[in-house]
Design goal:
44% helix; single chain; alpha/beta
């Protein structure tokens, strides 16, 4: 954690205990829906296969764009050539699925555990199938990554494939982070209305539709858990535009304004485009504010969205923040969100489940934002819960989704009230 400017005023905890989070493999569940020509081949155990099958909830009539090449005991014992086996499985997959334009080999464990260098395997397969598709590799290991870091690892693997912009190219905006197609379409319209015409989204709807980047590229993060991807983009001379995240009215307003300022859009024009959108969104959120106002909320660390969500609930829903936990904090990315939080808030980085459960229960909170594994025990204690993973799957970014975001938090409280 890089200490933020506000760190002297906030109460900070660093937790280094037991973790309760999904691993980075779960990022495949939203990545494969976004990149419609990509396929994710997980190289791992049966446990990893069961996790993805149960967590994804794939409809039986839809063939998913991910699968698991299961590593058996004979592979780990060196009784079979793992590289030869992987080549065989990948070849069979490519022959069966001619629609694949980008194949990711996703490690479920570090190479030291699975005894297989996936980077080398990806290079070999990429050369072999160069005329048909691209093959890349990244790690989704729960030992090395947690939950949303799987997306960061995937996008980081794509950055080296992005072409270099020419010095004569005009400035462009690169919006980074997986977004639902409907949200992307809305954002394109708003950027166009602002006068920002050259806008690219990363990842795109096709895996290898990659924008050219260079010193004239301005990077605007749509998700806060992309620290490594941002580092690699900056190494390619792209410039980061610091901003709040587009969650709620105030976050969306600040996000668009930051982009507009980076492109020297006149303030009066910004307001003419953005303020009507903000007014409509505020009106739509009123009924949810009535439910949430004054209620106490506790954030368990899970997705890295926590500081931005806490800002939204405090600033726009008038909730009381008891503790805001996040698995990792990248201060340069999160500074705008931290600045908007109350000075006396307790922030925690990392996890120690038992201690955090004790603090949550002692605070007698109304709502806990947590992982699936903690929800039922907290509900049994009389605390309403919201699953962190739902906040990643659901379209919640932008003005148009502000009321939907508020509803995700108000519904658990309304449900408990009806039941009681």
């Amino acid at each position: 954690m890089n200490a933020p400017d506000q760190g002297m005023r906030m109460h900070w905890l660093r937790e280094r205990g037991q973790h309760e989070v999904f691993c980075g493999l779960t990022g495949i569940m939203w990545l494969h829906r976004k990149m419609q020509d990509a396929f994710f081949l997980i190289v791992g155990s049966r446990t990893c296969a069961h996790l993805m099958q149960s967590a994804a909830g794939v409809m039986i009539f839809a063939e998913p764009r991910f699968a698991t090449a299961i590593i058996e005991e004979r592979d780990l014992a060196g009784l079979a050539d793992a590289h030869e086996e992987l080549d065989r499985v990948a070849t069979a997959l490519i022959e069966r699925r001619p629609d694949i334009g980008l194949l990711f080999l996703v490690g479920s464990c570090p190479s030291e555990v699975i005894k297989l260098d996936l980077s080398r395997a990806a290079q070999r397969l990429d050369q072999r199938f160069a005329k048909r598709l691209r093959v890349l590799a990244y790690s989704g290991s729960g030992i090395e990554t947690s939950f949303t870091q799987g997306e960061d690892a995937c996008l980081a693997a794509l950055v080296p494939q992005m072409p270099q912009a020419k010095p004569s190219d005009p400035p462009n905006l690169l919006v980074v982070g997986t977004l639902a197609d409907v949200v992307e379409d809305q954002m394109r319209r708003h950027f166009k209305a602002l006068g920002i015409v050259r806008v690219d989204f990363f990842p795109g709807r096709r895996g290898m539709d990659l924008a050219a980047i260079g010193p004239q590229t301005r990077v605007l993060l749509a998700q806060p858990f992309l620290g490594e991807t941002l580092r690699l983009l900056q190494a390619r001379a792209a410039k980061h535009v610091p901003a709040s995240f587009p969650l709620g009215v105030e976050g969306s307003l600040a996000w668009y304004e930051a982009a507009a300022q980076a492109f020297d859009i006149a303030k009066a024009h910004q307001q003419s485009v953005l303020l009507p959108l903000a007014d409509r969104a505020r009106l739509a959120m009123q009924k949810h504010r009535q439910t949430l106002r004054g209620k106490k909320v506790f954030f368990f660390p899970d997705s890295q969205l926590e500081p931005a969500l806490a800002r939204f609930l405090y600033q726009e829903m008038e909730m009381q923040l008891t503790e805001v936990g996040t698995p990792y904090l990248h201060a340069a990315i999160m500074q705008a969100e931290l600045d908007a939080l109350p000075a006396d808030i307790c922030m925690s980085e990392g996890q120690d489940v038992d201690r955090q459960l004790d603090r949550c229960i002692a605070a007698a909170v109304d709502l806990a934002v947590c992982g699936l594994g903690l929800a039922n025990p907290l509900e049994a204690k009389g605390i309403s819960t919201k699953w962190s993973i739902e906040l990643v799957f659901t379209p919640i970014q932008g003005f148009e989704q502000s009321a939907d975001l508020a509803a995700l938090f108000s519904r658990p409280l309304q449900r408990r009230e009806r039941l009681s």
